[in-house]
Amino acid sequence: MTEKEKCQKETDEAYMRRCLQTARGGLLRARPNPSVGAVIVSADGRIIGEGHTLPYGGPHAEVNAFASVKAEDEKLLTDATMYVSLEPCSHYGHTPPCCDLIIKKGIRRVVCGCIDPFAKVQGRGIERMREAGIDVTVGVLEDECIESNIRFMTFNKLKRPFIILKWCQTANGLIDDNFKPTRLSTPLTTMLSHKLRAENEAILVGHTTEVRDHPKLTTREWYGPNPERIVLTRETTIDDILKKLYDEKKQSLIVEGGRLTLQSFIDRDLWDVIRVETALDKTFTDGTRAPQLPENTEAVKADFYGRNLIQIFRKNNFIMSTDRFTSRLSQTDDYKRDMLIKKIEHAVEHMTLAELEAVSYDMFTKGYIEDL
To answer: Which residues lie closer than 8 Å to 367 by C-beta, 6 or more apart?
Structure first.
């Protein structure tokens, strides 16, 4: 990679971070749409417009970014670069296609954080912009951009909600005191649990937990909507619940207990994140054992809150770049595999040696190829 390419990479990443920061403004209000950030940068490196996705049915991030551009800066758009954390849409929904607006405004270059997995997009926005002569770069801070909308990504890729398993345990791995309910969370960690509820759309407990604990499962200690309350009973199955949530376009589910319910999700590999709170200053002589963490987990985060520790676990292969690349070339996509390969081969034939080296290095760093 040349010094010029390194400089461009650093610049692209800096503005993409701004996109991600801007996207947080629509985090709780945009769903079921993804929360996207868009930033427009003039040729002299000045941000002349930015915006995020408004509540469902409202304008997307790109529309709001263009709307924020001052009249005197409109003339700068033809030499500007638009950064957007997710591929611009290419279909008519509640709003017109954002890629058409970008083309109409005459933007010179577009930098996308990641491809949109939604069935009506999946690369079509990128292809349409390229066909219009726009220079499009894809994959800048890709993992961070996917993570920012991981619920939306999981929902569209796996056809089920993003599932968070959550429990609180003692230092010796018990979730109750001699089989009787007990509070292990502190006021602060309780507030964080309610924050998590506000960020997700449904919450589930088993029948025994419902009868024994009578949990409210609300966001009373945090600002935000209460998630849909679900109780798993003998008359309902996990599959029924997940299908119902998918049909309702609810993209996330917290499973809070009890042990058998949590373990049933683990045994079927139906989870994306496991959140374990441990009261390090508490041990009980007997009680219900906490669920067994699956073997394919790794701790990705650990935070102390007084004497309580909250750990976040994910699967070892969580958002692998190679998996995403394979999915882009999937036979089920409307973009036929053979057509894509032919386009890639045609592009390679017309590349200079320097361009080939740059592409090879990029694919190597993302894990698409093993050696240079």
So the answer is: 320, 321, 322
Task: Write out the H or E segment, with its range, that includes residue 137.
Answer: strand 135-138
CA distances from 14 to 7, 9, 142 (A): 11, 9, 13
Instruction: From 82, 86, 84, 83, select the one nearest 33 (Cα to Cα).
Output: 86
Q: Is 62 a catalytic residue?
A: yes
Set 50, 62, 199, 210: catalytic member: 62
Tell me: pLDDT of 213 over 90.
no
Q: Residue 93 has what pLDDT? A: 73
Q: Which of 262, 224, 257, 230 is nearest to 244 (CA)?
A: 230
Distance CA 211, CA 183 (A): 17
Is this model's pTM higher than 0.85 or not? no
Q: Quick one: what percent of the chain has pLDDT higher than 90?
A: 70
Confidence check: pLDDT of 40 > 80: yes
Quickly list H helices, the chain: 3-23, 61-67, 98-105, 124-131, 142-148, 150-158, 187-198, 207-213, 238-247, 259-267, 321-328, 337-349, 353-365
